[in-house]
Amino acid sequence: MITKWMNNYIEEHTAKEGIALNDKQKDFLERKGLLSSDMNVLPAPAFKPSYSFSNKETDELLETPANTGDHAVSYVKAHPNNYMFAEEPAFATIGIDGVVIEMDDVFGTITALFGLQVQKKHGEWLKKYIDAKLGTAAGTRSLMFSADDGLWDVNIAMDYVDGFAETKSFDETLELVYEFVFNMLVELEDAA
To answer: Do 106 and 55 share a domain, yes or no?
Structure first.
């Protein structure tokens, strides 16, 4: 899974001068023996997703604040009827197209929602992993497999993720989502 996505990333992003990798990606590829000795590793660019802001009821696109990535993620609590959608090239290395950040109307938590390209058979493992990391309080996580698109619809309460605070920026919050999912997929691949 993650090995395949990382190999695809290497094929698509290796330039004459080398390949840009963050520390987690580099460590993983070295551990798996997937970095050739002649490959020059460059520092990954800053994590800078593109954002769009929409209404929860209608999905109508709204005016997205300037420099959204720098805004505190508590912004979604101040605008509870809306959500923020983010895309980031690094998400391709963890089987995610994009992430929605919103306030959960029932539990009042800031949640990250995304479709995860993992086989249905790994559902119990994913649930146990997330429960072990975030706990089992009501509203901590929701996972549902969609047979239509072959994705796990994942919803995690960021309030329970190590290192999260509502004062973190959208960019920092999405980097936490990336790290959480990356670590989860590395452990899943090691366990499989």
So the answer is: yes
Indicate if the pLDDT at residue 137 is higher than 80.
yes
Cα→Cα distances 4→1, 13, 28, 132, 186, Å: 5, 14, 12, 26, 12
Q: Is the pLDDT of residue 47 over 90?
A: no
Domain extent, residue 35, equals 2-43
Angle of helix 170-191 relative to helix 23-31, nearest 10 degrees, comes to 10
Same domain, 63 and 82: yes
69-78 exposure pattern, b = at least 16 Cβ within 10 A, e = fewer: bebbbebbee
pTM: 0.93
